[in-house]
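User: I'm new to structure prediction. If I give you an amino acid sequence, what do you actually give back? Let's try with this one:
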Amino acid sequence: MSALAVQTDVDSVSDRLGRPLRDLRISVTDRCNFRCPYCMPRSHYGAGHQFLNRREQLDVDEIERVAGVFVSLGVTKIRLTGGEPLLRADLAEIVARLAALGVPDLALTTNGSLLRRWAARLERAGLRRVTVSLDSLDPAVFAAMSDTQVDVSQVLDGIAAAREAGLEPIKLNCVVRRGVNDATLLPLVEYARRERLVLRFIEYMDVGTSNGWTSAEVVPGDEILERVSQHYALVEQTEEPPGVARVYRFADGGGELGMIMSVSRPFCGDCTRARLGVDGRLYTCLFATAGLDLRGPLRDGADDEALRELVLSRWRHRSDRYSEIRSSMTTSLRRIEMSYIGG
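Assistant: Good question. You get back a string of structure tokens that encode the predicted 3D arrangement of the chain. For your 343 residues, that looks like this:
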């Protein structure tokens, strides 16, 4: 039976805290050509690191089937992530298959370094928009934040390629670390305003256990807002339904700015996201310690109805709210690494 053929009362697909299932993030690879210290530090992901082999990853057919199940349950937004998704050779086929499911919002998050060669092909396959991780325009700071020899100009060219292909609106994600890139935020604001891009500043989070996170490196969103407000008047916007970002518009009409404040202002109560790891495990929180295996049932012959029941059961029992309860009691938890489930 096709997942799309099943009629579902999507309003009933809510977790224990009343949060509906609306968003699905699919990690298509655990590999990346950057070694950002806050995500894939080279000390843990060096030359000897064992990445998943092809057999351990979901293939195109499996990704399509699982995504179809989620769409039948009310998911209206799918985002492809990694690792770096543009490293996956069959990415265009994945996009085409997901686009055929009719999901209204199909997007991709990338570091942008390979967008020039991919943008037009992905747009033709059905991708709607992209989000590019860009932590600084300063070449030296960019290199420190990404630990790569790729020059920031290559990422900017990728953003231009995405615009030429019609993958808009283009969003920029900037993770802010005190003492590393927090002194270079204003040029990013000016660049986003000039190029009509949607900029999101993200508080440095304790995702995974390999990035050496300390609260001392967190720049609270309110502090960032104060810095920006010294140069531009901002007006907070109300979004319905609420999203993970607090959204502000420049009073002079110069676009939009978002703040993702998982540390200083947790938004667990508004989280509608599920995450599918590259190995086929389902995670219901970015800070999860374990996932539900869907790859096994898929390969053992489970039909769509059986997969639906697995997903429904996990979501309806979901009570995750890590950011709201973050404390000394949670710091020792062995959380899944971001490179397996995306941001």
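You can read the tokens as a compact description of the fold. Here is one thing that stands out. Residues 1-10 have pLDDT under 50 and may be disordered.
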